[in-house]
């Protein structure tokens, strides 16, 4: 697969099993889809992940504002970073304003072409980019209930659920988000984001947040 820059189609079929959460069992929204990928595909994914993550780390490509799905980062380190800034601002007699953002269906709405464009922007080119494009495209899923299976459906967007590469792809997809902000300081944990603004007055705080 690596030599041919092609990810086998047989490895790109996910079994989706609905897991009941609560409420009426006849309502599809009361089930959580659990995606299971072929075990052999994860061996290849691990190889690709290690190479890609090492490259991103070596060239310091991942944003310092991102604390999710990264070595030596956690929710605790994100919280410590936040609270440190808040205390410093309070010591300076400044006001803090925090905006909390949670992106809905974030992993499921990733546009493949935009992701591939960003991978190329970050230096992933040639055979490596061709292989990752093959990994993302022509993916299918089928629903399994006990021993019964539905027909396969093509997945047109999103990173593969239950995959090894999926979370890293998502980090790259939103990696440039902090560069779009001028007045607020962001911290991200995957798709969860908080923006901190500080100012000497509530009016200035409102202006700062609205400008971003």
Automatic annotation (TrEMBL):
<dbReference type="Pfam" id="PF00078">
    <property type="entry name" value="RVT_1"/>
</dbReference>
<dbReference type="InterPro" id="IPR000477">
    <property type="entry name" value="RT_dom"/>
</dbReference>
<protein>
    <submittedName>
        <fullName>Uncharacterized protein</fullName>
    </submittedName>
</protein>
<dbReference type="InterPro" id="IPR043502">
    <property type="entry name" value="DNA/RNA_pol_sf"/>
</dbReference>
């Amino acid at each position: 697969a690596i030599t041919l820059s092609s990810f086998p189609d047989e490895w790109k079929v996910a079994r989706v099993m609905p897991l009941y959460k609560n409420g009426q069992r006849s309502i599809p929204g009361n089930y959580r889809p659990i995606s299971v990928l072929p075990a052999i595909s994860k061996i290849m994914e691990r190889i690709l992940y290690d190479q890609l993550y090492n490259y991103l780390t070596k060239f310091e490509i991942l944003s310092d504002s991102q604390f999710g799905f990264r070595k030596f980062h956690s929710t605790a380190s994100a919280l410590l970073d936040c609270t440190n800034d808040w205390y410093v601002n309070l010591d300076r007699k400044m006001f803090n304003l925090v905006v909390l953002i949670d992106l809905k269906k974030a992993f499921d709405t990733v546009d493949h072409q935009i992701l591939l464009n960003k991978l190329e922007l970050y230096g992933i080119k040639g055979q490596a980019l061709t292989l990752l494009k093959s990994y993302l495209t022509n993916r299918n899923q089928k629903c399994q209930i006990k021993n019964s299976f539905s027909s396969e459906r093509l997945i047109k967007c999103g990173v593969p659920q239950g995959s090894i590469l999926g979370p890293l792809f998502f980090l790259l997809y939103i990696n440039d988000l902090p560069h779009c902000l001028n007045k607020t300081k962001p911290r991200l944990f995957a798709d969860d984001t908080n923006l901190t603004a500080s100012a000497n007055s509530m009016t200035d705080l409102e202006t700062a947040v609205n400008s971003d």
